[in-house]
Amino acid sequence: MMKRDHHNRRVLAYHLIITAYGFWLPNDPRGSWSDSVRSFDLRRFGPATKVTDTRSHAYRPHDREKRLAAKAALARPAVRFNGLQARAIASGFSRKIASVDIVVHACAVMPDHVHFVIARSCSSIEHICGQLKASASRELLEQGLHPFQNELYTDGTRPSPWARGQWAPFLFDDAYIRRAIAYVRNNPIRYGMKSQQWKFITPYPTN
Predict the structure, then answer these.
(1) Cα separation of 84 and 165, whole Å?
(2) Three-class SS string for the chain?
(3) The pLDDT of residue 2
(4) Each residue's pLDDT tens digit, 31-67
(5) Which of these, 140, 129, 104, 141, lies nearest to 119 by C-alpha position?
(6) 179-203 pLDDT tens trace
(7) 164 CA to centre of own chain
């Protein structure tokens, strides 16, 4: 069945955003995608600041000092991926994309988050996101590049380099999809990075 939003519009694709640990906190004063603050260390900075719209809040006026103080209170330093780690992450994505029914039209691996444009499939975007995160984490670990390579919890598990959840605005038509693809392709360039060409990308039809 074709997925629809509350306005009964057909969902054709998603602009999936996956963030690294510490990139955007659940009680960020600009708003967040979280329903709750699970970390005890962060609760003193206030409750979750959930927003329901899909626009960017990155440039919204806010208390910057409070935001940075909350980041400093994290149990571990916020993750920032270097070039080698970015390539390992993309390799992990490629492995998973090749093994399941995922069509990716654009991808940008940034130092602290990842953008995708992914065509709708029979799997939920939440499930796809979980698969992509897990595969990228395994690749980082296998290459000895995991940000928490030598850190283990008491139960033997390792902290994730990714934040919980994801942000996945719906894309309803050709114009939405093309704008999202252009945004993702240009994102590295906007931040002074080289353009990214990944082998797992399926070009979006031109007509």
Answers:
(1) 24
(2) CCCECCCCCECCEEEEEEEECCCCCCCCCCCECCCCCCCHHHHHHCCCCECCCCCCCCCCCCCHHHHHHHHHCCCCCCCCCCHHHHHHHHHHHHHHHHHCCCCEEEEEECCCEEEEEEECCCCCHHHHHHHHHHHHHHHHHHCCCCCCCCCCCCCCCCCCCECCCCECCEECCHHHHHHHHHHHHHHHHHCCCCCCCCCCECCCCCC
(3) 47
(4) 555 556 456 554 554 555 555 655 555 556 655 665 5
(5) 104
(6) 999 999 999 999 999 999 999 999 9
(7) 9
Retrieve residue 84's tokens: 């080698």
Specify the amino acid at residue 178.
R
Quote the CA–CA distance of 168 and 165 in Å, as a whole number. Answer: 10
